[in-house]
Amino acid sequence: MSEPANLAKSARETLSAALAALQSSDDVPDELLAVAEPIARTMGILHAVERSDGTQLERTQEALSNVRGALGALQNVGAAHPAVDAAMEAVAGSLAKLFALSRCKPAAAAPAAAKAAAPEARPVQRPAPEPEPAAPSSPETARATREWHRPRLSLEERRRIRAERRGRPSADPYPSGAPL
C-alpha cells in the first residue's frame, strides 16, 4: 500500500470513530448530528483514495475543507455532551492526516508494469562539464569570499597587525615568553 493510501485509511478509521461517537447515543443534539454529514462525505472520499491505492487524490482538498468545517462546528457546539469531546478529538486527529494527504503526490498506478513494458536502456556516460568560476556579484561578496579563504592568524599576529595599523610599535604587551 502506498503512503497516500495508508494516510487515507488511517484518517478514515479515525473519522469512523468520530461518526460512531456522534451516532452512538439517542440524546445527541441536532446540531451535533449536522456535523455527521461532512464527516461521512469525507470518509467516502478517503475510501476512494484508499481503493485507488493513492492514485486518485483530486478530492483531498474537498475532504480537508469538510473536516475543517466539521471541527469548527464541533468547537462551536454550545451543548455539553460526552459525544462532543470524543468526536472533536477524533476529527482533530484526522485533520493532521488529511493535511499530510493533501500534500502527497499521486502514486504511480503501475510502476512494475511500466518497467516490464519498457526496454532496458543503458545510460550513456558523458564527462561532467567543469564548472566555470563565478564572478562575484558585488564588492561585498568579493570581500566576504576573500575573508573566508584567508588563513587564520594567531593571537600574537593579530595584535602585531593591529598595532601596525594604528601606527604603534609592534611590541607585544603580553609576550608569550614572559614569566607570570
| First-last Cα distance | 73 Å
Instruction: Let me know the average pLDDT.
Output: 75
* β-sheet strand percentage: under 5%
Largest sheet: none
How many runs of DSSP E, i.e. beta strands?
0
User: From the helix content, strand content and strand pairing, which structural class follows?
Assistant: mainly alpha
Low-confidence stretches: none
Shape: elongated
Classify the oligomer.
Answer: single chain
The Rg value, from CA coordinates, equals 33 Å
Question: Which percent bin holds the helix content?
Answer: 55-70%
Order of helices and strands: HHHHHHHH
Total helix count? 8
Description:
The chain has 180 residues and is mostly helical. It has helices at residues 3-23, 30-33, 36-51, 60-75, 82-103, 111-117, 139-149, 155-166.
SSE layout and pairing:
Layout: H1 3-23, H2 30-33, H3 36-51, H4 60-75, H5 82-103, H6 111-117, H7 139-149, H8 155-166
Salient structural properties:
about 60% helix; mainly alpha; about 180 residues
Provide a concise account of the structure shown:
By secondary structure, the chain is mainly alpha-helical. The protein is built from 8 helices and no strands.
